[in-house]
Amino acid sequence: MAKKRVMYECLACGYESPKWLGRCPNCGAWNQMEEQLVQSTTASSKSPVQVNTSNNQQTGRALKLDEITYNNEVRFSTKFDEFDRVLGGGVVPGSLVLIGGDPGIGKSTLLLQVSVQLANANQKVLYVSGEESAQQIKMRAMRLALNGDNFWLLAETDLLTIASEIERIEPDIVIIDSIQTMQVPEHTGAVGSVSQLREATAVLMRIAKGNQIAIFIVGHVTKEGNIAGPRMLEHMVDTVLYFEGERHNRFRLLRAVKNRFGSTNELGVFEMLDVGLQEVGNPSELFLEERLPGATGSTVVAALEGTRTILAEVQSLMTPTAFGNAKRTASGIDYQRISLLLAVMEKHCNMLVQNQDAFFKITGGVKLNEPAIDLAIGISIASSYWNRATNADDVFIGEIGLTGEIRRVSQIKERLKEADKLGFKRAFIPKNNFNDIDTDFEIELVPVATIKQAVQRVFPRQ
């Protein structure tokens, strides 16, 4: 009989200890050690999943690079351009993709729509749900007016049963919703525990790699916004996607934080409607459509997200503080960047912001964290501080240094092309970028060398 022993595993990071600890020595989390029964395995134990190894390379010895046979895998499209963009051009057979997001954000709706689109393109799809019954998924599909002949539904949490169904159906794509509900019966540990998550993901990875099946797994997130479970979960998969957005905002953003088959800087934009998720081909127009003309503290920035240029509105609100310490709040912008820019504006533009409460927001639920947004934030601070409106046809691009200089940014032509296409009349850009532009734009270019010079050009005689 197999011998059992007790181990304590951290729910936050997966650290194992032979005794219970109040604080995890690996990640520092408190009260996260969970008791696990570890059963020693014998050499004769078999893997619960049969893997097709007929196409695998010979294992057990190192091979020269020229001896390895390589077949250039052909990606297949999901018929969702935004989804394909984030994946790097389409779905790669044999890939394991993890999608995380807040509850109710639309992860299941997105994957259900993608599944039916793939099924309509003659791809066999198996949708496995551990949280909803087949009738509930059918009801949601009817509400979204979806239909697919190559679409199979399975309400199951046992990975042995799921593996046998995969072997019987031989699908091209498998959706697992969600990984926290899956369990390997031969493995000890409660459903959703660190050990079960790790083992279930390992089983799915063997299925994906051994049978060239693309598997999408849904993961819940914690209060901090990270995918629940050990950090190892993100290391095991090929691609990690985050589905973001405010629940009361109709926009949803799909962002890649890890991608072995493409860029991690791509961003997909969707709009949540009563008929499901719709792609947003030109998000800049929607992000700017509700901008008020003549509003103070409002500027537009041309930011880069991967290969796409997004024009977003930066809003600032400066008000005298009623208490001793001024309050700073930021949404969609890094707080440290805000503190830095407020200090630069006070030092180089003669603005006393110590006694001002400052509130910042990027509209549309977008999060921008690149240096080129500095100039737009600085001008919005001056606009709100002096209560003077900026020109609605101006766009601002540039990084601000600690000495007040406007520094060069990358891909200036792509940013100006998008601003020109949307009808902006004037663009404030770094002076060092001006000589790099050899293309004629209808938009007027205003090169600036310092933040003080930019403020004087935007607000004359101030």
Automatic annotation (TrEMBL):
Listed SMART domains: AAA (SM00382)
Top-level taxon in the UniProt lineage: Bacteria
GO BP annotations listed: recombinational repair
Domain RecA family profile: from-to ranges: 72-221
This protein's UniProt keywords: ATP-binding, DNA damage, DNA repair, DNA-binding, Hydrolase, Metal-binding, Nucleotide-binding, Stress response, Zinc, Zinc-finger
Signal peptide: none
PROSITE patterns (UniProt xref): RECA_2
Residues given in the record as ATP binding sites: G101, D102, P103, G104, I105, G106, K107, S108
A Gene Ontology cellular-component term: cytosol
Motif segment (RadA KNRFG motif): 258-262
A Pfam short name: Zn_ribbon_LapB
MF annotations from Gene Ontology: ATP binding; ATP-dependent DNA damage sensor activity; damaged DNA binding; hydrolase activity; zinc ion binding
Annotated spans, Lon-protease-like: 357-462
Entry similarity comment: Belongs to the RecA family. RadA subfamily.
Role this protein plays: DNA-dependent ATPase involved in processing of recombination intermediates, plays a role in repairing DNA breaks. Stimulates the branch migration of RecA-mediated strand transfer reactions, allowing the 3' invading strand to extend heteroduplex DNA faster. Binds ssDNA in the presence of ADP but not other nucleotides, has ATPase activity that is stimulated by ssDNA and various branched DNA structures, but inhibited by SSB. Does not have RecA's homology-searching function. Plays a role in repairing double-strand DNA breaks, probably involving stabilizing or processing branched DNA or blocked replication forks.
UniProt free text on domains: The middle region has homology to RecA with ATPase motifs including the RadA KNRFG motif, while the C-terminus is homologous to Lon protease.
Name of the protein in question: DNA repair protein RadA
Naturally occurring in which organism (per UniProt): Fundicoccus ignavus
Higher taxonomy: Bacteria, Bacillati, Bacillota, Bacilli, Lactobacillales
